[in-house]
Structures are given as C-alpha cells and as structure tokens.
Amino acid sequence: MSYFLENEEVEKVEEVKEQDGIASIEPLLDNRIVRAIREMGFEKLSPIQEQAIPYLLQGEDIIGQAQTGTGKTAAFGIPAIQHINPDVKKLQTIILCPTRELAIQAAEELRKIAKYMHGIKVLPVYGGQDISRQIAGLRGVQIIVGTPGRVMDHMRRRTIKLDLVNMVVLDEADEMLNMGFREDMELILGQIPGEHQTALFSATMPKPILEITDRFQNDAKLVKVAAQELTIPLVSQKFYRVKNQDKDAACVRLLEYYQPKLTLIFCNTKKKVDELSDLLKEQGFQAEGLHGDLSQAQRDAVMKRFRNGGTSILIATDVAARGIDVDDVEAVINYDIPQDIEYYVHRIGRTGRAGRKGRSFTFANSREIYKIREIERVCHTTITEKKLPGAAKVLKAKADKYLNKAWELHEHEDIELMKSFLQRKMEEEGCDALELAAAMLKLQVGDKGEEIAADEYTKRGNRLGDRDRSVRGGGEGRSFGRGDGRRRFGRGDRDRREDGSTGSGESRRRRRSDSREDGRKWNDRDRKNADHKPSADRAEREAKKRKKREEPGIGNSFPKRKRS
Q1: Entry pTM
Q2: What is the pLDDT of residues 17-44, one digit of tens each?
Q3: Continuous segment of H or E residues that includes residue 197
Q4: 3 vs 221, residue with greater confidence
Q5: Exposed, middle or buried by CB within 10 Å (0-12, 13-18, 19+), for 259?
Q6: To pair with 450 at 20 to 30 A between CA atoms, which of 60, 92, 476, 503?
Q7: Which domains occur in the chain, in start order?
C-alpha cells in the first residue's frame, strides 16, 4: 500500500486504525509495567500511543508522524521496557534524541515506566558531561538515551557494545536532521548488527527522513496523528534566550520591571517550584508554590490567598494548576517550556481574560528554540523574541514605583511631621532636600543589578567527531561543531595574534626579528647571525655559571680563611 508524505510517495507502509484505550494493551504488558504507568496517570492513551504501542510490542518497525508533546516518549518507552531482559546486563536498546534536555527527560520517563521492573538500568548520555563518568555509568546499562554525537563517541571508544541491541529509536528525527546529525544517524543505524527493530518519530517527513526509512527499516507501519488545531488567546507573547543557570535572575528581573499584580509561574518539576518559591520570598516577593506533594487543604489555602491578593505570585506545576481559575492574572512566566504544546496554550490562557490585557514570558536556552518554533507552527501564532530589560531600566522601574507610592501620601495628615524630620536632618548634615531624597530612594531600590547575557544560538556545521562536546570561546572565523550548539574554535583562531599572524613558531621568529633593541631594522645578515646567537648566548651563560661556582661561598666551595 502506498501513501503520500510531503509530496513523496513511499511504498511498504500502511496506515493503521485507532484502537481502544489502555485496557487494550494491558494483556500485552508485564503487570509491573501496568502498575507503573497507572501510577503515572495513564488512564487513556493518546492517539500516537494507541497506534504505535501494539505494533512495537509485536516487534514491527514503525514510522510515527506526530508533533511534539503528543506522548511519543511513552509510545516507544513502554514497548522498550517490555522487551528488555533484566537478567542480561548489556545494552539492548538505543534511543537517539536531538538535545541533552530531551535525552534527560526521556530517560527519566523510562525510569518511571521501569519503576517496578527491578534490574533495568537506563542512562542518558550527552555532550558536556564528563566522558569518564559516563563510561563508568555504562556498566550494566540496558537502555541508553543519548544525543547522536556522544553515542558516536562511545562507539568509537568501544565503550558501548552493539551486539545485543534489538531496538533503535529515533525521536524527533526531523530536528536531528535540521541540527546536522544525518550522517551520525545513518552511521549508528548502519552499525547495529543482526535483526533489530527500528522506530522513527518525526513531526514532518522531508525527503532525507524518507530516505532513512527506506534504507534502514523493514516493512514499517505508519502511525500518523493529525496536528491538533490549538487556539492561542489574545495575549502578548514573548520569549527570552536565557541560560539555565540565569533563569532565576531573569525571573526576578521581569517581576521587578513589569511589576504585575498577579503572576503565574510554571515549572516542570516540583523541586523547582519549591526552590523558586524560596528564592522569591528571600527577594521580598509574596510568592507561594503549588504542586502535587501538598495536601488538598494546603492547596486550597494557597489558592485562597492567591485569589484574595494575599499572595501575588503563584509558582506551580501543570498538574497542580489544573484547577486555577483566576480572572485578574496579569502575567504568565514559563520558567520551563512545557513538554506538551497543549500545556503552553492552557498556561498562557490563564491571563488576558474578560477583555483584560495579558502577558506571557517564556525562557528558552539556545537548544530549546526549536520548541518555540514548533509552538508557533502548531498554534499559528507568533512568539516575539525580546532582550531582558537592562539593569538600568529595572532600577528606574523600581524607583518610579516607590516615587509613585510616596507621592500618593503627599497629602497625608502626618506629612507635616515628616517634613519637620527632614528639615532637622538637612540642618544637621548640611545637605539639601534633593540629596536626602535621593539617599532615601537608594535605600529603597537597592543597587543596580548585573546584566544577564543572552544564550546565543549557533548552528552546527558538518564536522565529524563528537558533536556534543562543549567548547567555550569566541572570535572571528570560527568553525562550529554539531553538539549542543556551543562554539568550537578552528585552529587558526586559537593561535591568531593581534597583528594578524597565526602564532606559529616561524611567525613568532619573524615578529621577533622585525626590530632590534637600537630601533633599526634588521637586515638579512643580521638575521643570519641571529640564528646562531642562541647557541653563543648559551655558551656564555654556562661559562658565567662555572665561574660563579668557583667563587668563594658559592656552591660546595668554602671561603678561604685569611692569614693572620
């Protein structure tokens, strides 16, 4: 049967019908897996899971066409765990992801699925992590979830053995293609010996992806989920390129600059909710956290304070925030990009209600920009990239806030008394009113903060080797490795000097020979003589050393006594 994808006709793939929910696959699964996924909240399977899981459990190759956030990880993760033999402490499954973040997330979800399958070990491998620690961690691992560059690195080092691999998964294959990983993907797939199962998941099916399926899959079954039309509310949407370690500072900066009355901040983990809540409290904000570890009574109390204005900032996970229905939320901050696109829509839909203006801010590091683009594509919206407000702008905003509050009290009954206090202080210190007012304002707003650098995005080149290895640096004429998007210097830049030369030995000699101590230019004869000078100098220095050793009181010689 043939079908059309992206105007390309592909043979050997047939579309499958949707099946029933989780009950339909329970007989095919180990009871321990069923227990784990029910604890994870799997009551109903997503369309991609309904279609993909039965085929993968049967050992079939599949092509899964579905957008980000449709539950693809569980779609291949459940069959992968089912196929693992816990008694065999060797690599059995390889899962490839485009970024370290996705690798970590996928590995964590697989560990949850394997919670009660004792003896199954899952390890994420990616660039920027100590390779020796990874090698040590690979002992006894049955599933690795990694970026192509780092997996290739381990293959070259022979720190992973492929002889027992029976399943390979390519997650977000189109994104790996866009990031320049095609060669690595093909090399990895080509090195898997014997019969094995291949699952490829991709939001789009461009020609190179179809070529990979033709070459490395056998009678693959197509499971396709149509992109869901999601409507974005009328909310101002912005995103900021921020390094993960700068997110806390960026969050504080936005809150200080925009000063929203009610703010919702979404994090992907309960741990981060608690950490951010504590941080904002230390900074003087009225902030509270909301997540699944709180009792129902605690949740109700937190929500009551948020609705009544007792708490101006609520930090929550997506699950905990399902029941939030507050009309006056002025801003939503996506501290973490949600894994499900629908969650993004639900998040920002909590502001801008009832005709009010709303703002949404999203933090994304350089390796997460594709997620922003995917949201734009699926939701037919635009998320504008902005630079974080500078430290001077934030300081001005804080000053304006306090000045406005102060001016609201200029007709208060106690204002005359305050004037007398100020007058007395001015007389004591010999200062004018402006100086004193500026000092008092400084006391309120604090110091100007440090600037927060953007996490610049860099494209990957076509270099072979470990594309995931992190190399910091800057400069012109740089070459780029593929890995995590950080810059990799070419040799020429590493050795380049201010004068434009390369810094090689010959170049250094040339620069050294350009001038003499007396300021005159060296001629060819001088340069010729200079070539022999080092050896002459060395002989002279040795002679001086010998003479010095022979002097009294030096070395092992003793001074001669004077005759009396």
Answers
A1: 0.50
A2: 334 467 788 889 999 999 999 888 777 8
A3: strand 197-202
A4: 221
A5: middle
A6: 476
A7: 3-224 (3.40.50.300), 236-390 (3.40.50.300), 392-445 (no CATH), 479-512 (no CATH), 513-559 (no CATH)
